[in-house]
UniProtKB/TrEMBL annotation:
InterPro entries: MUG/TDG, Uracil-DNA_glycosylase-like, Uracil-DNA_glycosylase-like_sf
Ligase in keyword set: no
Protein name: G/U mismatch-specific DNA glycosylase
Annotated Uracil-DNA glycosylase-like domain residues: 24-170
BP terms from Gene Ontology: base-excision repair, AP site formation
Length: 186
């Protein structure tokens, strides 16, 4: 085993992470607050956002030009210096986002609205159109910029970067992230 790599968790260790949360990477006045649906069990095990191997978040962020290099999940705090942050709609870790109900997503949307009011990012970028629709009660929302604001923030919806989302491969995902970068950071 490579001494610099953390061992993989056992099934029991992952199962024990159900319900855990990961603190947001957030500060006042960010350019973009990226918002996942909820932490997966692997991310909860590591304590870092989008940590599961196969999740394309970090690669899409870099390929889009939002980060100068490919960051590892354990380097998530470096986002703050780039004007970026990470949070989630729902704090509770689950094996899949399908375990979240509409009520929990709606409550998460209200908690997220308060977080956005408190920290005032210029943009809120939600990663997953289905979760966004449920969290804010907008069944017609599509990918891209949204008409209204979420508290003080303008809103952009991006595809979910999970490896389970077969609709978008990494090049297309990075291109969608790049559209946000062009609007929010250029």
């Amino acid at each position: 085993m490579n001494a610099t790599r953390r061992p993989r968790p056992s099934r029991e260790e992952l199962a024990a992470c159900a319900g855990r949360s990961i603190p947001p990477v957030i500060a006042p006045g960010l350019r973009v607050l990226l918002c996942g649906i909820n932490p997966g069990l692997y991310s909860a095990w590591t304590g870092h956002h989008f940590a599961r191997p196969g999740n394309r978040f970090w690669a899409a962020l870099h390929r889009s030009g939002m980060t100068p290099r490919l960051l590892a999940p354990c380097e998530q705090d470096e986002l703050l210096g780039l004007g970026l942050g990470i949070t989630n709609v729902v704090d509770r870790a689950t094996a899949t986002a399908a375990e979240l109900g509409r009520t929990e997503l709606r409550q998460g949307g209200e908690r997220l609205r308060e977080e956005v009011r408190r920290y005032s990012p210029a943009w809120l970028a939600v990663l997953g159109v289905t979760a966004y629709r449920a969290a804010v009660g907008d069944p017609k929302a599509t990918l891209g910029p949204q008409e209204g604001r979420f508290g003080p923030a303008r809103v952009w919806v991006l595809p979910n970067p999970s490896g389970l989302n077969a609709h978008y491969q990494l090049p297309e995902l990075a291109a969608k992230f790049g559209e946000l970068r062009a609007a929010a950071l250029d």
